[in-house]
Amino acid sequence: MARNPVTPVQPVDAVGATRRVDSGSTYFRHLDQWRLASEVQAAERRAKKQQQMSQEPQAGDGEFSRALSDAANADAPDRKR
C-alpha cells in the first residue's frame, strides 16, 4: 500500500448553486429589486400611455354622442306637426 493513499473525488453538481443563500436575505433583496423595477416600468408605461392619449384627437366620444342623439331623434315622432 502507498504511503499517501488516493481518496476518490467527490462528484460535483455542475447545475447546483455555487453559493449558498445566506438565510434568505438574498432572496428578499432580489424580490425587493424586482418590485422596484416593476414599479418603475409601470410608471413609464402610464406616462407613455398618457402622452399617447394627449396626442390623439378625442373623436370617439363626439361620434358616440352624435350617433346616440341621431338615433334618439330618428325614433321620436316629429313634434313640429
The biggest beta sheet reads: none
Mean pLDDT: 77
Radius of gyration: 35 Å
Structural class: mainly alpha
Q: What letter string, H or E per element, gives the SSE order?
A: HH
Rough outline: rod-shaped
Number of helices: 2
Share of β-strand residues: under 5%
Distance, first to last CA? 124 Å
In percent, how helical is the residue content?
55-70%
How many beta-strand runs? 0
Catalogue the unreliable spans.
Answer: none
Task: Give a written overview of the molecule.
The chain has 81 residues and is mostly helical. It has a domain at 23-53. The chain contains 2 helices and no strands. The protein has helices at residues 25-55, 59-75. The N and C termini lie far apart (124 Å).
Search tags:
0% strand, 81 residues, 59% helix, rod-shaped, mainly alpha
Write a concise synopsis of the structure shown.
This protein has 81 residues and is an all-alpha fold.
